[in-house]
Amino acid sequence: LPAAADVILVGSPHADPAQAKALDALLDAHPDALVVCLGWPAGPGDLPRARRIVFTYGDARPNARALADLLTGA
Asked: Which of 11, 30, 53, 64 would be a feasible disulfide site paired with 6, CB 3.0-4.6 Å?
């Protein structure tokens, strides 16, 4: 991931209309952003506008550590 990449963290936008609306607005401004879904997703089809998605299947410390390792190449 480039050092200046845009990363958008969300919970479960498919289950929260306000979060989905905010995500849409952010993707309007940053269409190439990496979207990290920290909640429990129903599937990739739930974020049709996101070009790059990572699902962590939870926001516990081990999930966050794995995400950090993935993003930094550690």
From this structure: 30
